[in-house]
Amino acid sequence: MWPVWLRSEYRHFIRIFPNGDAGCELFLTDSVRKNRYDISSTPVEVRFDLPGTRRITHMSELSFRGIDIGRVEPGEDLVEPLVETTNDEYPLQDGDVVVITSKVVSTAETRFVAADSVTVTDRDERVADVTGLDPREVAVIYEESEVLGAIPVGDIGKDLLLEQAVDTETAEEAIERMPAALLTDRNGRLCTNAGVDWSNSPEGMMTLLPEDPDASAREIREQLEDRTGADLAVILADSEIMGSGSMDLAVGCSGIEAIDSNFARTDLYGEPKVGGVDLVANEITAGSALLFGQTDERIPVVVARGLDYEDGEGVPNAGGLIRRGLRKTIQLTTRLKAREWF
Q1: Helix and strand totals (H; E) in the chain
Q2: Dihedral of CA 246/238/115/295: which sign?
Q3: Where is 182: in which H helix or E strand?
Q4: Which residues form the Coenzyme F420:L-glutamate ligase-like domain (predicted)?
Q5: 3-class SS at 64?
Q6: How far apart are CA 107 and CA 95, in angstroms?
Q7: In the prediction, which pLDDT does 259 show?
Q8: How far is the C-alpha of 262 from the C-alpha of 144, rounded, in Å?
Q9: pLDDT higher at 280 or 262
Q10: Quick one: pLDDT at residue 22?
């Protein structure tokens, strides 16, 4: 019966390959309906037949292969089990993009903070009082980033989150743990809570993002290339609040140009198109997240194969753009509302 092909409403085909005897579920969600498929084996590869062509790819097929490297303990070598597993199950090839969750990289780099060791200031207490966050977490967030604002997650999305919950009581508890999120600028990247995370962390510990995600991606890529002989790219992924849910985005990369600089190409009618600046690293990361999961799937690595990409280093620093964008958005919104009223 394998492989199994599934078709979504938007003509994207997904092919599932088995790996082991554990059961699995694949969720396809769009604005019209939610389809749930129960498959009798764990999915380790997803293939997308992409309609049409794009300048960066000129391809008809892109595959994603999940790699279970086992549990990585703090301070352990991440590359060795990755090389051993891929050599046995899915040997790396030239052009492969290795996407790794930032959490497993942070674990290997022992990027943990013991909550009881954090010194809390009056500012941290005041911010915690307003947001409902743990003051120790607030202190770490300020240490890791510049805080730009706050998002009342509980007030905005509680009803929707409860609708999507597998257990209402557990969902209520989760929402209470993060009633709000701080909007932060961490090394030029806009994110919530500076990537500081209590989930999937040792008890009483907070996990931080890798200190320099681009440098971590580069080091992993160089080690992988040295041990496999393949010409590769590496992307580090982290989940982020996005619209009515969450989405995995690239926080660091090496060996791949993160952005497809294709602005102002002409459209089908010969007119200059506003779009075309594709966030390639984010798109690959989002596809990989179909296999990562967010709970106990234990697939921390995905190999994307078939993408024709440009060589590059690092996720672009958007710190100045973030500040300018926030300021200009407020200014334009103020002018717009003034025109509505007068």
Answers
A1: 9, 17
A2: positive
A3: strand 181-186
A4: 66-306
A5: strand
A6: 27
A7: 83
A8: 33
A9: 280
A10: 35
Q: Which residues of 300-337 are buried (b: 16+ CB within 10 A; e: fewer)?
A: bbbbbbbbebeebbbbeeeeeebeeeeeeeeeeeeeee
Q: How far apart are the first and last CA of the chain?
A: 66
**Dihedral-angle region of residue 66 (phi above 0 means left; psi in -120 to 50 means alpha; beta otherwise):** beta
Instruction: Reduce the secondary structure of 90-120 to three states and give it as a string.
Output: CCCCCCCEEEEEHHHHHHHCCCEEEHHHCCC
Q: What's residue 53's pLDDT?
A: 34
∠ CA(40), CA(168), CA(23), 5° rounding? 10
What percent of the chain clears pLDDT 70, i.e. is strictly above it? Answer: 69
Residue 208 near residue 74, CB atoms below 8 Å = no
Domains of the chain: 112-208 (3.90.1660.10)
User: For residue 133, what pLDDT is reported?
Assistant: 92
Residue 25: band (very low, low, confident or very high) from pLDDT cuts 50, 70, 90: very low
C-alpha span between 332 and 327 (Å, rounded): 9
Token pair, residue 241, equals 């609040």
Q: Are strands 13-16 and 245-254 parallel, antiparallel or unpaired?
A: unpaired
Distance CA 114, CA 334 (A): 43
The total number of residues written for the chain in this structure: 342
Phi, psi of 247, deg, nearest 5: -150, 145
Three-state SS for 126-170 is: HHHHHHCCCHHHHHHHHHHCEEEEEECHHHHHHHHHHHHCCCHHH
d(CA 66, CA 304) in angstroms, rounded, equals 9
Q: HSE of 188 in the Cβ direction (CA atoms, 13 Å)?
A: 12
Q: What is the pTM of this model?
A: 0.73
* Rg of the chain on CA atoms, in Å: 21
